[in-house]
Write a structure and sequence with these properties.
This protein has a 4-stranded mixed sheet, with helices on one face. Strand 3 and strand 4 form a beta hairpin. It is of the alpha+beta class. It has helices spanning 10-21, 41-46, 66-74, 84-114, 122-143, 156-165, 179-189; strands at residues 2-5, 27-30, 54-56, 62-64. Helix 1 runs parallel beside helix 3, helix 1 (10-21) packs across helix 6 (156-165) and helix 4 packs antiparallel against helix 5 (122-143). It is 51% helix and 7% strand. The protein folds into 2 domains: 2-74, Glutaredoxin, CATH 3.40.30.10; 84-189, Glutathione S-transferase Yfyf (Class Pi), Chain A, domain 2 (Up-down Bundle).
């Protein structure tokens, strides 16, 4: 399998992390979005939306959207609950990540880390802070009750949210106010097969 992505992207890191946890072999192909490499005609054949990551199977079929990819890779593993309710709870957290977490924390990180907070995006950067802290508070409330988002074991839900949460300070979010989130981050980093973001 091939993965097209950027190792500094949280969405791409999800795939590297789950592949390491599950010992799945992938061929990594770097795509520099700042140079327009995700907008070439060749790349757009793989993902017409022009975004990374993209998983390309051995038979040429492709899958995009990071959470769809990690769910595909984790099927029939311990990272994907078999209980029907818990399986859909993982999806609940993944939808939360895409709609209530990533648009604030990941975008603020991108504006700061990739762009250096240019003057024309400073207001946008500042506007992301309240939404990011709201998402972190939701996670904190759950993680005060259970060590992982679904319960006592790591699942794809944790991988989805860990990717950008652990680098949230790069988007201006101080995690010291979220002790249970910090405990959860440490638990994930102690999981066998864990690898750091490049």
């Amino acid at each position: 399998m091939k993965v097209y992505g950027d190792k500094l992207s949280g969405n791409c890191y999800k795939i590297l992390l789950i592949s390491s946890f599950l010992d799945k072999k992938i061929e990594w192909i770097d795509v520099d979005v700042l140079k327009g490499e995700s907008r070439t005609s060749e790349f757009l054949k793989k993902n017409p939306n022009g975004k990374i990551p993209v998983l390309e199977l051995d038979d040429g079929r492709t899958l995009s959207e990071s959470n769809a990819i990690i769910n595909y890779l984790s099927e029939d593993s311990d990272l994907m609950p078999t209980d029907k309710f818990e399986k859909y709870k993982t999806q609940q957290w993944q939808f939360f990540e895409q709609y209530s977490h990533e648009p604030f924390i990941a975008v603020a990180r991108y504006i700061n880390k990739y762009l250096g907070i240019p003057s024309d995006r400073k207001t946008e950067y500042e506007s992301k802070q309240a939404g990011g802290h709201k998402a972190l508070k939701v996670m904190e409330e759950q993680l005060a009750r259970t060590p992982f988002l679904i319960g006592t074991s790591i699942t794809v839900a944790d991988i989805s949210l860990y990717a950008y949460t652990h680098v949230a300070p790069e988007g201006g979010f101080d995690l010291e106010s979220y002790p249970f989130v910090l405990r959860w981050i440490k638990l994930i980093e102690k999981t066998p097969g864990y690898i750091k973001m490049s």
